[in-house]
Amino acid sequence: HRDTGLASWISSIVSFPCRAHRGATKRQPPQCLQRRHSFHSYEGAWASRGEASQSYLWSQERPAERTMGLLSILRKLKSSPDQEVRILLLGLDNAGKTTLLKQLASEDVSHITPTQGFNIKSVQSQGFKLNVWDIGGQRKIRPYWRNYFENTDVLIYVIDSADRKRFEETGQELAELLEEEKLSGVPVLVFANKQDLMTAAPAAEIAEGLNLHIIRDRLWQIQACSAVTSEGVQDGMTWVCKNIATRKK
Fold it and tell me: Which positions does UniProt annotate for Mg(2+) binding (predicted)?
């Protein structure tokens, strides 16, 4: 029987002790978030001799489309047999990472508990082996993030767009991730999550506050989304898969 969506995902949840002291010096906080725009998504471009060209895609927000699971998107891409894809899902606690992961797996998102360790969802189908790593975002867990950097194909960073008080904190964490040697050159997708909430900041405002426009060493994109309603999730994952296909050629 053929796979339907991502119903064949095999889930395993592993928790580990979280005792660590983070001694790294924090970077300077991002610039103040000031402007609001009607924004869909935009992406950075590969650097060339120290200069980066960037293309921006602007459009009105579209109504929610039917969610396409990660596996069904990847089925459309040509790939060598048993090719492995490693996706790292990071962000602060309560950003919506686990909800997003369950949405990709076509699982129930009505009841989510905080991730104390990490969640792994993996599947083998039609020549793809997909490993999505959802690492807890609590402060005591973040020092363990670096244990999962190696061999990452795409970094997905999730932000709670409605929690403006933590924009500075989430910006500092992302800035540190982008300086990690093991993540050098790895494409990054920023999901500006919880856009279904009226208090959510638009993706353009978040991108400006995070200074994403200064990124020169990798492809990047920020995508407005709601992990609960699935709006915007498909667009973000389509971008992810296109980059996977390019990097794996």
Answer: 98, 115
